[in-house]
Design brief:
By secondary structure, the chain is an all-alpha fold. The chain is built from eleven helices and no strands. It has one domain: MetI-like (MetI-like fold).
Length: 266
């Protein structure tokens, strides 16, 4: 038991060392290269870190980071639920998919930032507009990957379900959704990245709180170290969310990764 724990800890440390080597190396290089910088727009990294400590590890975390996180979670959750709810029947029924495809392609071709003026007219400048902007962009990779995942279900297993008269909700929960889940999760991962981008854009357009609003205010006030500290905070924000999503993915698709590991060993 002890040997197993030691081996697991060793694997985790080895993986962390590989993943963090390049970021830490680049960080150290930038810290050294920028140490004597006199460029107004590219201040020394040490100065940016000093402003980061004063701003983002203080009251601004509650006034800017948490509101951004709340909007992102709301918009992303709605996008996931809506994309999966629409994508499953479209993937299961070909006539429905063919009928809906022209409409979906039309709306998918519209860049979400172009909808911001329309959403402002409909919902004002509040959080509803910002959440709606996130939904309009994050929903598409989730929806399309759900459709493809459902369409690509194993034909042998599909025929087995038909043979044993597994229908309705039982077929949906025990065959369709598990079969499509790896591709659905891929769509969710892409949707999260798009959601973060749109969160920042919507806050830069019309907001008084949030990461995007803070960065644009610093830029317009020529507070350049503060602006770069906001960019750094945004990068850490996205990195933290990607780590959380990876943990969710490993747990949700534990059966899938287990099967893949067995195939590699055989």
């Amino acid at each position: 038991m002890r040997d197993t724990l030691v081996r697991s800890a060793g694997k985790i440390l080895h993986r962390l060392a590989i993943e963090l080597a390049l970021p830490l190396g680049l960080f150290g290089l930038l810290l050294a290269v920028s140490a004597n910088s006199t460029n107004f727009y590219f201040p020394p990294l040490a100065r940016v870190l000093d402003r980061f400590d004063a701003l983002w590890l203080g009251p601004r975390f509650a006034t800017d980071v948490l509101p951004s996180l709340g909007r992102l979670i709301a918009g992303y959750t709605i996008a996931c639920l809506t994309g999966i709810a629409i994508g499953v029947p479209l993937g299961m029924f070909r006539p429905l998919r063919r009928a809906a495809e022209p409409v979906l392609e039309f709306f998918r071709a519209i860049p979400p930032p172009a909808l911001i003026p329309v959403l402002v007219m409909l919902a004002g400048f509040g959080d509803t507009m910002k959440v709606a902007v996130i939904v309009t962009g994050a929903i598409w990779p989730i929806l399309l990957n759900t459709v493809e995942g459902v369409k690509g279900a194993d034909m042998v297993l599909d025929e087995t379900c038909r043979t044993y008269q597994i229908k309705g909700m039982s077929r949906l929960w025990n065959f369709v959704l598990p079969s499509a889940s790896p591709q659905v999760v891929v769509g969710m991962r892409v949707g999260l990245s798009i959601g973060i981008i749109l969160m920042v854009i919507s806050e830069m357009f019309a907001a008084t709180t949030g990461l995007g609003a803070a960065i644009i205010v610093f830029q317009r006030s020529f507070e350049i170290p503060e602006m770069w500290s906001g960019v750094l905070m945004l990068g850490l924000f996205g990195f933290a969310l990607s780590v959380v999503f990876r943990l969710f993915e490993r747990r949700a698709l534990k059966w899938y990764y287990g099967m893949r590991d067995l195939e590699r060993r055989s």
